[in-house]
Amino acid sequence: MTKIDLTSIKAVDVHCHPYIANEEPYSPEEYLRKLSLSVLPNMFKKAKEGSSIKIFPGMNMYMQITIQRLARYFGCQPILEEVVAKRNEEAKDFTAFTQNLFKNVKLEGMVVDFGYPTPPLSKDDYQRLTGVPIWEVYRIEPVMVRLRESHETFGAFIEAYREDLKVALNRKHVVGLKTIIAYRSGLEIRAKNEQMAKDQYEEFRLNDRARAKELRDYCLHVAMEECTNFNKVLHIHTGFGDGEVVLPKASPSFLIDLLRQEKYAETKVHLVHGGYPWMEEAAFITSILPNVYLDISLQNPFVGHGVERIISQVYELAPFDKVMYGSDAFTVPEMNWLGVLLFKECFERVLTDWIEKGYTDKDMAVEIAEHMMYKNFERVYSDYI
Ligand SMILES: [Zn+2]
Which residues form the Amidohydrolase-related domain (predicted)? Predict the structure, then answer.
């Protein structure tokens, strides 16, 4: 049997967020909360006493995998309390802890969205912490929120907004813009309508979370235009996210009219999270539009054992040169680490299965893996890295 081994291949994570060291050691419940996509404080509570095997409220399969793999890494029992105690000890030197985890899985570069957490963390500090090259995507929504305060009219606002995006795009390490419009008014983007956008400006001035769909769509078009002018990439959040997402309008299909427009034929667009759970839609879009790409962040590693399934599913339609590795890690370096580790394990099984069935051979399988893990990133973003 030809077994594929991806451990020696480097990975570049094309979507994740920065964090800083925790000041106090984590309790087991706090640690689970850190691993979770939930931001609600009462989601994780103490386990019931009196049992040696504890199912903590809120614990899921991805967390169980994290505990199992960390126990292997630390050489301890795969029990939450033991793993967290070990982790707290190791994380006292947070820089060494982080860099050792990154080296362990050959994580060698990251595209970071500093739009979360708020207020934003320092890029230089995060770069020093991780010790790997960091590129940035610049979020448009905080710009809109900030500029609305100082600009009374829509005309002055939109001019300042465009100027702000240009300044950001002029920075070399900024590889593109990012939008979370899926969290605000959804992905069904309409044509630019200046009058309607203008009419909603007052509402947006009063409430930065207002739906203000026409205004948000207008701002998204401006971001597309500037990414086109700078030949940089627009990252669009698609699919699941945190509890705020406009779920009925978050699937990538809603973007197709926007992406098919003649004026955006050359615009590079990156579908963040690959539209999960609508990854077939994202994969289909990347298979028909030459400048649209997707990453598998969030679904990897948060669907746990399902990572194997989603890799296989994405490749049902997505071309090999369109899919990029990502994690959406956002609280602790173990997330970046587990992202690569679990992804490699799962991808090895998928590729080995394809070879066994005679769908591909070993050389091609390794090439497919390398494309997903770093080559597609290095090609698409070659002008700015
Ligand atoms: Zn994210």
Answer: 204-380
**Å from CA of 360 to ligand 1 middle:** 33
Per the model's pLDDT, the better-predicted residue between 242 and 172 turns out to be 172
Domain that holds residue 45: 27-90
Token match 């090895």: residue?
Answer: 348
Above 90 in pLDDT, residue 41?
no
Please tell me what DSSP assigns to residue 382. T
Q: How far is the CA of 287 from the centre of ligand 1 (A)?
A: 24
CA of 222 to the centre of ligand 1 (A): 22
The closest alpha carbon to 67, from 85, 43, 93, belongs to 85
In the three-class reduction of DSSP (H, G, I as helix; E, B as strand; rest coil), residue 297 is classed as strand
Give the Cα separation of 125 and 294 in Å (integer): 28
Last residue of one domain, picked from the residues 42, 65, 90: 90
Residue 5 maps to a domain: no
Question: Does residue 53 share a domain with residue 123?
Answer: no
39, part of any domain: yes
CA of 3 from ligand 1 middle (Å) equals 33
Rg from Cα positions in the chain: 21
Q: Which of 10, 25, 16, 17 is nearest to 94 (CA)?
A: 25
Query: Could you tell me the CATH number of the domain that includes residue 197?
Result: 3.20.20.140
Cα(35) to centroid(ligand 1), Å: 14
Q: Do 46 and 136 share a structural domain? A: no
Name the pLDDT band for 40 (thresholds 50, 70, 90): low
**Same-domain pairing of 86 and 109:** no
Cα of 15 vs centre of ligand 1, distance in Å, is 6
For ligand 1, the distance from its centroid to the CA atom of residue 333, given in whole angstroms, is 15
The answer to the question of residue 221 being in a domain is yes
The predicted-structure confidence for 338-371, as pLDDT tens digits, reads as follows: 999 999 999 999 999 999 999 999 999 999 999 9
Structural domain includes residue 20: no
Q: How far is ligand 1, taken at its centre, from the CA of residue 237, in Å?
A: 8
Q: How far is the CA of 198 from the centre of ligand 1 (A)?
A: 30
Residue ending a domain, choose from 90, 112, 136: 90
CA of 167 from ligand 1 middle (Å) equals 23
Specify whether 86 is located in the same domain as 230.
no
pLDDT by residue (tens digit) across 218-228?
999 999 999 99
